[in-house]
Amino acid sequence: MLNLTLIAFFALHAVAQTDRGTLTSASVTKTKNISFMFHEEAHELSGLFLENKSKELYAVTDTKTEHPSIYKLISSTTGTMMSGQFIDLSTFGGFSEYIEQANALPVATEKKFQVFDFEGITKCGPIIYLANERIRQIVEVNLETKSIRRLPVDFNALPLVAEGGLNAGFEGIAADCESGLLYVAKERAPRQIFVVNLKTNHIQDQFTITSSENYIAEAAGYNASKPKLELNDDFADITFENGFLYVLERNAYEITKVDLKSKTVVGRLSFGSPKVRTLYVTNEPFGLAEGLALSKNKIFIALDNNETEVQPSQMGSANPPKKNSSLLLTLRRPKGF
Questions:
Q1: For 2-332, which CATH class?
Q2: pTM for the full model?
Q3: Alpha-carbon distance 145 to 270, whole Å?
Q4: Which residues have C-beta within 8 Å of that of residue 214, sequence separation ≥ 6?
Q5: Contact 104/138 with Cβ under 8 angstroms?
Q6: How far apart are CA 220 and CA 197, in angstroms?
């Protein structure tokens, strides 16, 4: 069992933005449900999924380990949170075979190669789908047969999938279970969303969306004498709900609502308050948000610390976090978003 601790109470302010970039008023979110979590072995949260029926929040990490796992985040009535190792994939059938086929890939010779680099998670019934970034694959986890395998989708047929290097691969995944569609987000360079038909395992569509105007190369402790960097527009995670895809754009500190029928942006929500931007001092302009999940009234955002130190002074807490802690932010969801 891994420990998580509730900390901190500060206000987050949310604004909605139309596709044209015009800012419009929205309910101001003053959320006190900001949970801080840490765990020693797997501390870099990289993907979230909320199962609406059970209200269970699942998480994956991109920490390199011999026991890649899926975690379940549990909140008590007092607000203290704990994380349990829900599934150790190394105990499932097909695990060794998956490693063998991954190590046979051409990218296995590259310096930063990593067999398991989970950046997204979603679920349909007894099947969990994991986005495995560096080798551009989807891992299918069957809870009934306790087995894993590579979902047989030929992403290599699309040349742009390999573009951008190892660390610009699959960063998010979401499912429309009723329609049998899987949405897979390539992070950047270029960013793209692929639509996979789960009945045929064929890629039936791909698209991108209008970029935010708020990609700002600023960070806590960033050397002001350096020229501002031109950040990549990015996809950090995605989630599906009622015909809409919600996209986490971490470098813009925004969540984008996309109408899947028209593939247009119909709303944006900012979580980039000064407090959030200074939770970690990275000396780099890049955002750290990597996980996104939605409930009826809440938005959950997971921050991957990327081995940087959290700043206790920003928390307003008498119970300071460990230096290498990840964070789970819980925002009140504005009506209509």
A1: mainly beta
A2: 0.86
A3: 41
A4: 252, 253, 254, 270, 272
A5: no
A6: 42
CB atoms within 10 A of CB 163: 14
Other CB atoms within a 10 A radius of the CB of residue 326 amount to 29
Listed by start position, the domains of the chain span: 2-332
| Two structure tokens written together for 327 | 């964070």
Cα dihedral 38→43→48→49 (10° resolution): -80
Can you spell out the DSSP letters for 11-42?
-----EE-TT--EE--PPP----EEEE--SSS
Sheet holding 237-241, edge to edge: 23-24, 16-17, 264-270, 254-259, 244-249, 237-241
pLDDT single digits (tens) 152-168: 999 999 999 999 999 99
Alpha carbons 71 and 86: distance in angstroms, whole number? 5
Least confident segment among 25-34, 207-216, 218-227, 310-319: 25-34
Instruction: Determine contact, residues 53/303, Cβ cutoff 8 Å.
Output: no
Length of the chain: 337
